[in-house]
Amino acid sequence: MNTCLICKRPLGTAPELQDCGGDCLECMAEAGDPDAQVEMYRILQERRGGLMAETDKGLMSENDAAAATIAPGDESS
Length: 77
Description:
mainly alpha; globular
């Protein structure tokens, strides 16, 4: 398996470890490559959005969860 020439992590094992010609996307972004920075920003925003959704789901009480599953107009429960 190929590894990043800079950080030595295995390439292709995570989105930030995409092979960018021998270096990973994360190292390229840290080095100042504008395309890599844009892509890393997108990856981090997706992760943050996913984490926020999981956190919000975890904070939902049982009553809130039950209410969220009731279809509009079906409030017989």
